[in-house]
Design a protein that fits this description.
It holds the Pfam family MS_channel_2nd. The chain is α+β, with helices and mostly antiparallel strands. Helices cover 53% and strands 18% of the residues. It has seven helices and eight strands.
């Protein structure tokens, strides 16, 4: 009896080992199939997502929708499609997507608290699109930066500065901070400050400045407000008495598209006119030192 049990024991062990190997092999084949299917789903899904994004972009471009709303919707749709793709890949791996969705939902509160800043940016983007303090193409000043709005995305606004820097400003900050929209009006009021020396004839200086303004054709002679009311074309008045100069403020209206060029050109013209006039002097800070000799 003992001899029989000793002979049968290896046979039983080998049988169990065979079953274990069969299970491992079957499991490996099943896992490999699921991974392969998930990989195929991912590759095809990525192509479909890109295709749908491209189609959606073309549809939006043909519509009359505001460009800012278009970029926001493109960003939102892309995120939704990526979430659907991830769930599809997870489902192809054999993981219960319902349980996964429930797990994500239960973790949503914690994730929301951790990403409260990003959620605020999304809410800020919605506020910007609803109330439109600015839109794509506007020239704005905000957060110590200024430039042209290129895109309004889900989380941030992209601004291109005059020196071609790309700035990403969070929508949460843009919806709660002061934003100066210089594109809202078709007119801009350009301003210059001209300093002359004490003792120079102010009336004569004003005439010289007026001649400079008259020589610039892009300055508007009959500007009107948005309500259609006439505005004074030029403003030339003494506004400050500094330690070494009498400051004359000069203001004039110009079309928004001409603002920067006119502003720079007038700087040169005003300097040249004051410098060329023998009756006027450009002041600069001076100090008088008295030396007293002790007898």
């Amino acid at each position: 009896m003992h001899f029989i049990s000793l002979v049968e024991l290896p046979a039983v062990s080998v049988s169990r080992l065979d079953r274990l190997l069969d299970k491992l092999l079957d499991g490996s084949i099943m896992i490999g199939q699921r991974i392969l299917i998930a990989l195929v789903v991912f590759i095809i899904g990525r192509y479909v997502v890109k295709l749908l994004n491209r189609v959606f972009r073309h549809v939006l471009e043909r519509s009359t929708m505001d460009p800012g709303v278009q970029s926001f919707l493109r960003s939102l749709v892309n995120i939704v499609l990526l979430i659907v793709l991830i769930l599809s890949v997870v489902g192809a791996l054999g993981i219960n997507t319902t349980s996964l969705a429930a797990l994500l939902a239960s973790a949503g509160v914690a994730i929301g608290m951790a990403l409260s800043g990003n959620l605020q940016n999304v809410a800020g983007g919605i506020v910007i699109l609803l109330f439109k303090p600015y839109k794509v193409g506007d020239y704005i000043e905000a957060q110590g930066n200024e430039g042209t709005v290129k895109e309004i995305l889900l989380f941030h606004t992209i601004v291109m500065t005059n020196d071609l820097r790309t700035i990403y400003i969070p929508n949460g900050q843009m919806s709660t901070t002061v934003v100066i929209n210089q594109s809202r009006s078709e007119l801009r009021r350009a301003q210059w400050v001209v300093g002359i020396e004490y003792g120079n004839d102010i009336t004569h200086a004003k005439k010289v400045i007026q001649n400079c303004l008259d020589a610039e054709p892009r300055l508007l002679r009959e500007p009107t407000s948005e309500a259609g009311e006439p505005l004074a074309p030029f403003f030339i008045e003494v506004t400050n008495l500094n330690a070494s100069s009498v400051d004359i403020m000069v203001q004039a209206y110009v079309k928004r598209a001409d603002y920067l060029d006119v502003r720079f050109k007038m700087n040169e013209a005003l300097y040249a006119a004051i410098d060329a006039d023998p009756a006027l002097n450009i002041p600069f800070p001076t100090e008088t030192v008295h030396i007293v000799k002790d007898n």
